[in-house]
Amino acid sequence: MNDSTDSDKPKSWWQRLTGGLKRTSSAIGNAITDLVRKRKLDSAMLEEIEELLIRADLGVDVAARIAGQVGEGRYDKAISPEEVKAIVATEVEKVLVPVARALDLGAQKPFVILVVGVNGSGKTTTIGKLAANYRARGKKVMLAAGDTFRAAAIDQLKIWGQRAGASVVAGKQGADAAGLAFDALTQARRDGIDVLLVDTAGRLQNRTELMDELEKIGRVMKKVDPSVPHAVLLVLDATVGQNALSQVEVFQKIAGVTGLAMTKLDGTARGGILVAIAAKFRLPVHFIGVGEGVDDLAPFTASDFARAIAGLDDVTQKTVTH
Q: How many CB atoms lie within 10 A of CB 282?
């Protein structure tokens, strides 16, 4: 007799994504349903749709574009919530397709990823999950505990290293981060490491100090290999909403960000901020996180995210797209 139930089966990425974006999709979907039910479409309704999309942090331009598409040829007609959600999904996907790009590890060995972001954004956890993902793909991975300001960050990285089967280079709290990064890269080259993930401090209170430190890390590592870092990954916390926009701006200036990872999408109704960021900065979005588990961080796909955020289920997804 087979006692396993559906709840025992590992969830697909679509299930984890839709579950993780539930707060955002409910905020958008329920509001859309309330607006369009038992009413014909008029300019007042379009304004309300635009406002609710702005409140969901999709950004003014994207919200206006979606409202415009909803109104196209539909004035004085009844419109269903599913029709509006399908238009939201289609327009959001258009914004996201150009930025949904995998982080290509290229031919360099070790491939050096400098990971930046404010404290509390999920930076160290993201590094751990990436390490586990790369290890699962058979890569030799090393972690460098470059956030030497916080003892907790160093300890956390060591735990993730053990969990993922990755080697860790760490110093004492307060050690020179650039010197540690130099040692890690030297060792990574000697040990034939495929991927070196370098954690960094995220103290935005003193931007000048942070800028100097990040610049020094880059400069010192270039003494070992002039091509590094090969990627600068900015980790953003979705729960901070509009503040994420200013974080992208700051870190782009001080660290030369090449791509984004957005975490904690399961903890917010403001997942739309990723759309606003994509529309404004057009930086590649490499990964999104929708939970605590290792498998809850995955490469970013535009169509899945767009449909999940609009609250379209898997069946509707296929109906809308085919």
A: 11
Take residue 77 and report the two structure tokens written for it. 């007609």
pLDDT at 8: 58
Mean pLDDT value across residues 99-112: 94
Distance CA 37, CA 56 (A): 20
In DSSP notation, 149-209 reads T-HHHHHHHHHHHHHHT-EEE---TT--HHHHHHHHHHHHHHHT-SEEEEE----GGGHHH
59 alpha carbon, distance to own chain's centre: 17
Count of CB atoms within 10 A of residue 206's CB?
A: 10
Give Cβ neighbours of residue 66 (< 8 Å, ≥ 6 apart): 49, 50, 53, 58, 87, 88, 91, 92
For residue 209, the model assigns a pLDDT of 86
Is residue 128 classed as helix, strand or coil in its secondary structure?
helix
Note the pLDDT of residue 219: 94
92: burial class by Cβ within 10 Å (0-12, 13-18, 19+)?
Answer: buried
CA 32/CA 45 separation, integer angstroms: 10
Provide mean pLDDT across the span 280-299.
Answer: 92
Q: Which residue has the higher pLDDT, 11 or 230?
A: 230
User: pTM value?
Assistant: 0.92
Hey, which residues does 237 pair with through a beta bridge?
263
Cα-Cα-Cα-Cα dihedral sign, residues 87, 92, 95, 99: negative
- Binning pLDDT at 50, 70 and 90, where does residue 7 land? low
pLDDT attached to residue 89: 96
∠ CA 251-98-20 to the nearest 5 degrees?
Answer: 75
Cα distance between residue 255 and residue 29, in whole Å: 37
DSSP-based three-state secondary structure for 289: strand
